[in-house]
Amino acid sequence: MEKPVQITRLPKSEFYETVFDLYEKTPAVPSQIPLSRLSKLVSERVITDKSVPIPDCIPCGACCIFGLVIPINRREPEPLQKYLEITLDGADDLVIERVLERDKSDGRCTNLEGVIGEKIGCKVYPDRPQICRDFDAGSDRCFGYRRMYGIDPPLSDAELAEAENKLSRVPEKVKIRGIEIKLESTSVMFNRGATDIGKQLVEVRTLKIVAHMNDGEVKDIHTYDPAKESWYEHELEGFTWDEAKAIIEQRKRGLAIT
């Protein structure tokens, strides 16, 4: 017998209200270096010397407790037994994000077991989302998290100056830092072919995807009909403008609906 899947739907504003509350409960100290400048991949290490060994994840878990919004890709929910669907405010039928649940007491992922910095485990490790799989232990971002949670000591003034000097020599690409999906317009269409009089008036909605770039610019990137296209807010994050536009064009040609 298949296990039941527990899906909880929350309006976007209500969801992020809980996220902001959880930020106040997380034990991390501010990062010495903006996390956006620290790569998640070992192959892209800049400030961590190649001689530094990759740390063991089991007595750590810092990366799992820091990310309060862990999105789930559209093909991933099937093996997961519990997750949240985030809906557009005022339109509970329009899902604009799927995420893992967080513990309301300390902000940790509800799939975490154990004690951060001592021994930690993941109850859904084989089915964990892609964002978890794409994070490398031993990356610059990994060590950044470890310092934030006191697992590793903070950088000394000399180490911090050296790290900032190394980062200054690496050009930072302009990428999408965050995506916001908004209701652009609502109209009513008369469907003359409908035999049911209650279905002759059809509501037509248009949604707009707004890209917040890491250089501070905010730009509209795509407008779409949710009856024909489906988007989650995390799907274009981390891409350059041109990469995101290419993804949009590919989706439009397939008109994928989930």
Outline of this structure?
This protein is of the alpha+beta class. It has helices at residues 12-23, 62-66, 130-133, 140-148, 157-168, 241-254, and strands at residues 6-11, 82-88, 91-99, 112-115, 119-122, 176-190, 201-213, 218-224.
Q: In percent terms, what proportion of residues is strand? A: 25-35%
Mean pLDDT equals 89
Main β-sheet description: 3 strands, mixed
Count of folded domains: 2
Principal-axis shape equals globular
Oligomer: single chain
- The helix/strand class is alpha+beta
Main traits of this protein?
2 domains; three-stranded antiparallel sheet; three-stranded mixed sheet; 258 residues; 6 helices; single chain; 22% helix; alpha+beta; globular
Describe this structure in words.
- The protein is an alpha+beta fold.
- The protein is globular and about 75 Å long.
- It has a three-stranded mixed beta sheet with strand order 1-2-3. A three-stranded antiparallel beta sheet has the order 6-7-8, covered by helices on one side.
- The protein is 22% helix and 25% strand.
- β7 (201-213) and β8 form a beta hairpin.
- It starts with 5 loop residues before the first strand and ends with a helix.
- The longest helix has 14 residues, at 241-254.
- The mean pLDDT is 89.
- It has six helices and eight strands.
- The protein has two domains: 6-168, no CATH class; 176-254, no CATH class.
- It has helices at residues 12-23, 62-66, 130-133, 140-148, 157-168, 241-254, and strands spanning 6-11, 82-88, 91-99, 112-115, 119-122, 176-190, 201-213, 218-224.
